[in-house]
């Protein structure tokens, strides 16, 4: 999968959970097509600090949605690895 694909998959998962940040991932995916370096930087930055992307927890019917969170965790990890890999590639 491409970084845009990861962003779209995450957006879809967040939208299904009615999470407010679903559109932000569509925007990041689109930015990646227009300005790859800026998108990579923006995506990498959402992973740090309190209240960051790492802290997202998805709920369904006011309960933690274990299945959705497992999918999100896998996508989140794969996206981060892909971003770091591309950043390293750009710097070499």
From TrEMBL:
InterPro entries: DUF6966 (IPR054239). This is DUF6966 domain-containing protein. It comes from the Bacteria. Residues 29-64 form the DUF6966 domain.
């Amino acid at each position: 999968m491409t970084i845009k694909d990861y962003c779209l998959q995450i957006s879809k998962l967040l939208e299904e959970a009615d999470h407010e940040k679903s559109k932000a991932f569509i925007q990041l995916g689109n930015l990646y097509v227009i300005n790859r370096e800026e998108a990579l930087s923006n995506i990498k930055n959402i992973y740090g600090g309190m209240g960051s992307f790492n802290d997202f927890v998805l709920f369904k019917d006011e309960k933690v949605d274990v299945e959705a969170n497992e999918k999100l965790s896998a996508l989140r990890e794969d996206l981060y690895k892909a971003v770091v890999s591309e950043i390293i590639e750009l710097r070499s």
